[in-house]
């Protein structure tokens, strides 16, 4: 799987480092074509989106600025609480900006539907979403997402920014967590 000692916590690799890299390259080409040289304000959602933001942004040729928001709805568990808290707000004024929210995963959709409403109320020219992963079967809220890397099954995944109880974010691939780890 990897030369790190994961014990028996990980069940399998769902998306390899190479698959992620290839898909991000395709997504960046789509984004570049759509924005056609306009400046994009990438808004990364801390902390899960750090890897996607770092790798996707470096593939873009469009002029880019970056800002970060920290929100939390999961705490340390595997289920969304549905209550979104802003932990760190943007430093950038969104008036007239083309905003592209960068996320690692859309699971229930609760985080993003809340974030979309919040950012749209700040007067941007546009707000779109790019996410590496989406779990369609788990969606409780319909969110219109422009760029989706991979549709994945409704299993709890970790790695490439995604954590379970703050662990595994550093893995270069996305793997599924063995159910015994979270009592599933
Ligand atoms: O679609 P949803 O069910 O709302 O879940 C998706 C969100 O949950 C995770 O973040 P989390 O709040 O756990 O914080 P983190 O990014 O710091 O891990 C993930 O990074 C997404 O932001
Ligand atoms: O499957 C997941 N893994 C890690 N964090 C998450 N946040 C929402 N869904 C997930
Ligand atoms: Mg997150």
From TrEMBL:
Transmembrane segments: none annotated. It is found in: Cytoplasm. It catalyses: GMP + diphosphate = guanine + 5-phospho-alpha-D-ribose 1-diphosphate; IMP + diphosphate = hypoxanthine + 5-phospho-alpha-D-ribose 1-diphosphate. The keyword tRNA processing does not apply. Residues 16-164 form the Phosphoribosyltransferase domain. The keyword DNA damage does not apply. Pathway: Purine metabolism; IMP biosynthesis via salvage pathway; IMP from hypoxanthine: step 1/1; Purine metabolism; GMP biosynthesis via salvage pathway; GMP from guanine: step 1/1. InterPro entries: HGPRT, Hxn_phspho_trans, PRTase-like, PRTase_dom. Its main location: cytoplasm. It holds the Pfam family Pribosyltran. Its EC number is 2.4.2.8. Gene3D superfamilies: 3.40.50.2020. GO terms for molecular function: glycosyltransferase activity. Keywords: Cytoplasm, Glycosyltransferase, Magnesium, Metal-binding, Nucleotide-binding, Purine salvage, Transferase. It is an enzyme of class 2 (transferase). Its cofactor is Mg(2+). SUPFAM superfamilies: PRTase-like. Belongs to the purine/pyrimidine phosphoribosyltransferase family. This is Hypoxanthine phosphoribosyltransferase. The gene is hpt.
């Amino acid at each position: 799987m990897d030369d790190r000692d994961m014990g028996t916590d990980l069940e399998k690799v769902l998306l390899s480092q190479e698959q992620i890299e290839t898909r991000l390259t395709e997504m960046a080409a789509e984004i570049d074509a759509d924005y056609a040289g306009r400046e994009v304000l990438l808004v990364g959602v801390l902390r899960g989106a750090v890897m996607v933001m770092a790798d996707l942004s470096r593939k873009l040729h469009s002029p880019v600025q970056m800002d970060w928001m920290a929100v939390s709805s999961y705490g340390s568990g595997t289920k969304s609480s549905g209550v979104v808290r802003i932990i760190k707000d943007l430093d950038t004024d969104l008036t007239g900006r083309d905003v592209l929210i960068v996320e690692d995963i859309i699971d229930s959709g609760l985080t993003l539907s809340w974030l979309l409403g919040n950012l749209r109320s700040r007067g941007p020219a546009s707000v779109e979403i790019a996410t590496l992963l989406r779990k369609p079967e788990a969606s409780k809220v319909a969110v219109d997402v422009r760029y989706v890397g991979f549709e994945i099954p409704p299993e709890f995944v970790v790695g490439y920014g995604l954590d379970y109880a703050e662990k595994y974010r550093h893995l270069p691939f996305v793997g599924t967590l063995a159910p015994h780890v979270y009592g599933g």
